[in-house]
Amino acid sequence: MRAMFANLTSADFGGRSKKELRTAERQRVHALFDEIQTAIYNDDLARLEVLMVKLTLTTASHRRTN
Fold this sequence. Notes:
- It is a single chain.
- This protein has 3 helices and no strands.
- The protein is mainly alpha-helical.
- The chain has one domain (18-65).
- Helix 2 packs antiparallel against helix 3.
- The longest helix is centred in the middle third of the chain and has 24 residues, at 18-41.
- The protein is rod-shaped, with a radius of gyration of 18 Å.
């Protein structure tokens, strides 16, 4: 019986794997970078400030979970 469970990982019990979560976080950060670059190009300082706060919160929450 023990041999049946020897190779199980937490990913085998449903839910999203850590790799999937990191991929989703990375995609959010890349999307924010794209929006930041657009705001810089358009000289939209108000939008840039909001996006920088979002980026800070996203990366801060990532650091807390690691």
